[in-house]
């Protein structure tokens, strides 16, 4: 790590993770819980409500390209985190006061998308990759923030909603996010750019400019995107629609939040170990795990399962994410090195977040086909997409591959070493 960043190397990572939990978890992961109420109060279909969340994630992905480029050029992480927290608070404040569908869409697509992208895992992971030589563990800690947010914030939202009406619950959550802004600004150390002074120093910014189309056309980049989109599409379809599925099975939709919280906590324990494994083992082997697990999820839901099986598939889905989230940035760093990591992960964000369409597809297919069993049978195509992505990566790494600027081949990198 650089001398300027060595004083508090973990502070930025932990604060970024904290905002990912509170802001990202609130905006992204409580949506399915509140959607049940919004469908009734606004008298609209599931697809109409879920579309707002999907559009917000798609717009967040477009923001991610800008965020990645600015991070690579030296823009301060704490500024992104602060603005993201404020935007999340604004979004929930609007949701608390309006019953208008257009205002609902505006809150999520504009303010919500900024909150999602500016506090995303990309911000903390970019800092971790630049600061730590062996970044598997810190990157996985940031990834764990996604799982903690998915576990904690829906449960907190459910408790708040049970103790007060939805209006007050949303305002309380807006206040929680607003308080995160000063935490980010005053606790995240600023970045001071400099040239690395020793062999233990990681480069802090790109010394060369690589065209975006060159990164986008890389076969490993395409392959990891296929895997991420395939797994995340099924993940979003499952998580966002679980409350509706629970209701169809005769259970309280709020139980979905508790089931997901327990499953996420259990699987989250494995995330740091997966992160450390990315520094030691072939990433192709690790990436097989989420593909197999989402296949199990598809088969299980497509078979019209009882409630206990649905609860079990929640564990399979959260473990799939526990493997994917650390492996995704590890693959990008392995392929593109420290210098191009922020740029590559930024370019991946529109595709990564486009997986949110899985939630909309599942809801819309349920409305058309009449059951979630039939809907998930159709969504099985995303398992095939992920499998094709793995084949892309495996075939690409059978050769030496391109020499990207700043990539030190053979520096203890399991993916690079396995491809030699």
From TrEMBL:
Question: What is the name of the protein in this document?
Answer: Major facilitator superfamily (MFS) profile domain-containing protein
Q: Which residues cross the membrane?
A: 12-36, 48-72, 79-97, 103-124, 136-163, 169-188, 220-242, 254-273, 285-303, 309-332, 344-365, 371-393
Q: What Pfam families is this protein classified in? A: MFS_1 (PF07690)
SUPFAM superfamilies under this entry? MFS general substrate transporter
* InterPro entries, sorted: MFS (IPR011701), MFS_dom (IPR020846), MFS_trans_sf (IPR036259), Proton-linked_MCT (IPR050327)
**Span of domain Major facilitator superfamily (MFS) profile:** 1-398
Q: Which Gene3D superfamilies match?
A: MFS general substrate transporter like domains
Q: Which GO terms describe its molecular function?
A: transmembrane transporter activity
- The UniProt entry's coiled-coil ranges are none
- Name the keywords, alphabetized: Membrane, Transmembrane, Transmembrane helix
């Amino acid at each position: 790590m650089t001398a300027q960043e060595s004083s508090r190397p973990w502070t930025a990572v932990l604060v970024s993770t904290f905002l990912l939990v509170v802001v990202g978890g609130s905006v992204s992961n409580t949506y399915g819980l509140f959607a049940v109420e919004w469908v009734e109060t606004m008298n609209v279909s599931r697809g109409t409500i879920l579309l707002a969340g999907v559009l917000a994630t798609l717009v967040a992905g477009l923001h991610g390209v800008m965020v990645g480029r600015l991070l690579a050029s030296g823009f301060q992480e704490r500024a992104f985190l602060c603005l993201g927290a404020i935007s999340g608070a604004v979004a929930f404040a609007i949701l608390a006061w309006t019953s208008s569908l257009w205002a609902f869409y505006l809150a999520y697509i504009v303010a919500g998308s900024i909150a999602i992208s500016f506090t995303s895992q990309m911000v903390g992971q970019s800092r971790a990759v630049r600061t730590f030589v062996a970044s598997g563990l810190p990157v996985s800690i940031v990834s764990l923030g996604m799982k903690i947010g998915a576990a904690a914030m829906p449960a907190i939202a459910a408790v708040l909603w049970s103790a007060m009406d939805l209006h007050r619950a949303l305002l309380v959550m807006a206040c929680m996010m607003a308080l995160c802004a000063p935490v980010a600004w005053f606790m995240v150390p600023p970045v001071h750019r400099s040239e690395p002074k020793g062999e233990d120093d990681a480069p802090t910014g790109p010394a060369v400019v690589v065209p975006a189309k060159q990164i986008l056309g890389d076969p490993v980049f395409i392959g990891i995107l296929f895997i991420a989109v395939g797994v995340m599409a099924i993940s979003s379809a499952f998580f966002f629609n679980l409350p509706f599925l629970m209701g169809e099975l005769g259970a309280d939709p709020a139980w979905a939040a508790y089931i997901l919280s327990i499953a996420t906590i259990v699987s989250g324990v494995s995330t740091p170990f997966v992160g450390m494994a990315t520094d030691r083992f072939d990433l192709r082997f690790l990436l097989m795990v989420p593909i197999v697990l989402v296949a199990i999820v598809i088969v299980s839901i497509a078979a019209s399962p009882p409630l206990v099986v649905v609860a079990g598939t929640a564990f399979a889905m959260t473990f799939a994410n526990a493997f994917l989230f650390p492996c995704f940035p590890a693959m990008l760093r392995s392929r593109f090195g420290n210098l191009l990591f922020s740029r590559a992960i930024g370019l991946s964000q529109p595709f990564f977040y486009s997986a949110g369409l899985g939630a909309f597809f599942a809801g819309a297919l349920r409305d058309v086909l009449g059951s979630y069993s039939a809907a998930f049978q159709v969504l099985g195509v995303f398992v095939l997409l992920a499998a094709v992505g793995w084949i892309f990566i495996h075939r690409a790494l059978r050769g030496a591959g391109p020499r990207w600027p700043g990539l030190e081949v053979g520096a203890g990198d399991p993916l690079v070493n396995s491809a030699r």
